Every structure is written in C-alpha cells, then in structure tokens.
C-alpha cells in the first residue's frame, strides 16, 4: 500500500452547516481523496483530480472547503482545541495544514485549484 500524499486526523467535517464528525480524517492516497469518520467509516471519496478545493475568504485560517461528488464540505484542520491547554500552537499551524492540503489538490489538477 502506498504512503499517503496527505493525511490529517482530528478534522472537523461539516456539510450544510451540519457536523458529520469532530475528529475525522482526510486522506489523499493513490490519486483518491477520502473523508472518513473518527472510526474510519467513509463519509465520501472521489478521484482527487475531480475534487474542487479552496479557502473561503470568510473562514478561519485553519479551514478549507472541498466539493466532493457535488457535495460541499467545510474542513477544519489543526484546531487549537485538539492540543493540550497551554500548548505552543497557533493559527499558523492550522493554516500550514490547510495550505498543504490545497497544494496536494492543486498538484493533482496540474495547475491552480478550482474555486
């Protein structure tokens, strides 16, 4: 099995202002994006080159949006509450994870991400 190109755990995944999981997973592996619950059950998946991803202007630095199979999801990656109190975490950490996610999706498209 190939190493994932991108993997994040502890991800809040929302659809239509409804939380699907507060500790889910986002994986991109073998050209496929997978959104999973904290138990590993698939929420949605699609070939990564068919996924549209971006960063909404109104969202926090640790949030991204992804359209998978026509469904729009809001992903919160690297939430400060995932870390122990007093930890040395900041919005920059979540923003770095979001930027890495968007970079992997963009590279699958061969150019800039679709917005």
Q: How many distinct beta strands?
A: 7
C-alpha geometry: globular
Side-by-side strand order of the widest sheet: 4-3-2-1-7-6-5
Q: In whole angstroms, how far apart are the ends?
A: 31 Å
Q: Biggest sheet, in brief?
A: 7 strands, antiparallel
Helical fraction equals 10-25%
Radius of gyration: 13 Å
Q: Number of helical segments?
A: 1
Q: How much beta, percentage-wise?
A: 35-45%
Uncertain segments are: 80-88, 111-115
- State mean pLDDT (0 to 100 scale): 85
Q: Structural class from helices and strands? A: alpha+beta
Topology overview:
Elements: E1 6-15, E2 18-29, E3 32-36, E4 42-47, E5 52-54, E6 63-68, E7 71-76, H1 91-109
Antiparallel strand pairs: 1-2, 1-7, 2-3, 3-4, 5-6, 6-7
Write up what this structure looks like.
With 115 residues, the chain is of the alpha+beta class. The protein contains 1 helix and 7 strands. The longest helix is centred in the C-terminal third of the chain and has 19 residues, at 91-109. The chain is globular and about 30 Å long. Mean pLDDT is 85; it is low at 80-88 and 111-115.
């Amino acid at each position: 099995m190939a190493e994932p190109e991108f993997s994040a755990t502890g991800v809040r995944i929302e659809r239509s202002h409804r939380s699907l999981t507060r500790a889910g997973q986002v994986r991109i592996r073998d050209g496929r994006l997978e959104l999973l619950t904290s138990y590993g059950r698939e929420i949605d998946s699609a070939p990564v080159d068919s996924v549209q991803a971006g960063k909404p202007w109104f969202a926090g630095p640790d949030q991204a949006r992804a359209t998978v199979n026509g469904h729009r999801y809001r992903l919160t990656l690297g939430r400060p509450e995932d870390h122990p109190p007093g930890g040395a975490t900041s919005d920059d950490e979540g923003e770095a994870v979001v930027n890495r996610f968007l970079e992997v999706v963009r590279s699958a498209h061969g150019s800039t991400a679709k917005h």
